[in-house]
Every structure is written in structure tokens, then in C-alpha cells.
Amino acid sequence: MGKQSRRIRNHTAPVKQPPPAPVKQSRTNLTLKLDHNNAEDARVIDMINTREKYIPLIREDIRRPRNGDRVSIKDALKYKLREIRQQQAIYLHEISTEVVNAYALTKNGVIEAKCLDIYFDNFNGKTSLIKFLTYLHNGNGDKASHYYLKWREMMSRRLDQLLFDDCSDEYVEIDGKRIDAGKDEAVRLMGETIQTDVDFYTMAYPVLIGTAIPMC
User: 1, 31, 53, 84: which sits with the fewest CB atoms below 10 Å from its CB?
Assistant: First the structure.
């Protein structure tokens, strides 16, 4: 699979707004009090709680097969899925940190309030991908299919947003190259990235599940 940037990562091609300055860079002491009864606060709280569930994946010790090891195709694929899953957990942590930082800045009036939906969409897409990878790794075809199709739907929606919505203040990074999200090139590269991932999962699915991957 092709090398992707820190912002795109592998296996999900998020379109990002330029990240806000971290709270720790502000010279003003900022506070962030979240209330479960506030709808926007509740979204942030849920994101933080979900992020915490995946911290063990970040710390997982994944043994890389050594040169000369006799490894079956199935075991090699399982290793790759665990590696991808760990990276997605790292990205979830980074996304949630950006959201908390941005939310603290807006709640304290340091910056103008901005819509954070793109962060939540990206976060939810990666959450679905992690669940798919987990169930695929464990051979649970029903649940793997459910979360795979959910991930595909989210990726399709992001492509539609790039094509038809105003994305002038967003960008995509692939292989270290920053691309204005309003350009056709961003749509093409994001589509190619998703297709590369789909091709890999299409190959891995029948090996681990025993049937062809669901198409719709």
C-alpha cells in the first residue's frame, strides 16, 4: 500500500482543516469544562471516552515476522491488520486532541468558533475501520462486513463532499504533498488511496473469512 502522510495515514484518507494551535502553546491559562447536558460538549466527551478505549491498541506489542520466519499467509495478514489497527488508534488519539484543543480555544474566546464536524466524521470513520480490522482479524464475518460497509459509506460521503461542497478551507496531504481540497487532484488522489485500501481488504477478506468481501 502506498506511503501516505501523517495527516492522511493509511487506510482512511481524511480531509482536514488546518489544525488549530494546541492549547499548550497559548500563553493564557485555558480551562475546559464539559457538560453532558450540552449537545456539543457531549460529542466531545463521547470522543474522549471512545479514544480512551483504544489506548491499549497504541501500546500493543506487535511482533514483526523476522526474515526467515515461516509464516502462513493468514498469519502474515493478521500481523498486517494489527499493524494498521495500531496506526488508526494513534490517529484517533491525535484527532481527539485537536478537537479538545480547538474546543478549548473557542470556549475561551481565543479563536472564532468553527464547525468541527470534519473531525468527528474522520474520527468515526477510523473507529469503524478499527472495528472492521478487529473482526476481520478474529474471523467474525458478520460484524466485519457490517463495519466494512459502514467505513465504505463514510469514505464515499467524504468524496461527495469534496466534489460538491465548499472545501476551500480544507486540505489533503498525501506523500507529504499538501493539496487544496477544492482541486480535482485532491478528489482523484483520495479516491486512489481508498481504492488501494479496498483492494487490500478484498484480497485479505476471503483468506480470513472464507467468502468474498461484501460489495454493498
Answer: 31
Q: In this structure, are strands 177-180 and 171-174 parallel, antiparallel, or unpaired?
A: antiparallel
Render pLDDT for 138-191 as a digit per residue (tens, 0 to 9): 999 999 999 999 999 999 988 887 777 766 666 666 566 676 666 677 778 888
Q: What is the pTM of this model?
A: 0.79
Spatial CB neighbours of 210, under 8 Å, sequence gap ≥ 6: 141
The Cα–Cα gap between 121 and 43 comes to 12
**Quick one: cell of 117?**
464536524
**Cα–Cα distance for residue pair 143/39, rounded to 1 Å:** 29
Q: Answer for the pair 65, 121: CB distance below 8 angstroms, yes or no.
A: no
Q: What does the alpha-carbon distance between residue 67 and residue 179 come to, in Å, rounded to a whole number?
A: 38
Question: Taking the domains of the chain in order of start, what are their residue ranges?
Answer: 23-208
Residue 177, beta-bridge partner list: 174
Long-range CB contacts (within 8 A, 24+) of 201-207: 201/132, 201/136, 201/148, 204/77, 204/80, 204/81, 204/136, 205/136, 205/144, 205/148, 207/73, 207/74, 207/77
Q: How far apart are CA 183 and CA 187, in angstroms?
A: 7
Output phi, psi for 31, to 5 deg.
-120, 150
